[in-house]
Amino acid sequence: MKVKILKFENMTDEWLDFIAACRSGFVHDYDIVEGPMADDIVWNYVNDFLDGDITRKVFWELAKFKYPTHQISLHTLKALDCLKFERIEIINE
Fold this sequence. Notes:
Blueprint: E1 5-7, H1 13-23, E2 32-37, H2 40-50, H3 56-63, E3 69-74, H4 77-80
Parallel strand pairs: 1-2
Antiparallel strand pairs: 2-3
C-alpha cells in the first residue's frame, strides 16, 4: 500500500507555512505528516504570526529557544491501515 507522506526534518519556513495554513483551515491530501511538534507555547507564537502580531523573523527568534518533540500524525484511513498491533503489556503499579 502506498501512502502520501510529508516529512519535516526541522522547524523551517516550509514547516511554519504548512502548520499556519492548516491552522487557518487548509485541508491537505497527505496520509501521514511527520516532523517537529509545536507545543502550546509555539502554537501561541503561530497564532501571533497568523494574526499579524509578530513577523516571521520574530517568530523564529522566539521559537529557536524551544525544543520541539517529534510527531507522526495519521490523517486518513489509508494511513491507519499501515498500523499493526504487536503486543500488549500490563504494567503493575
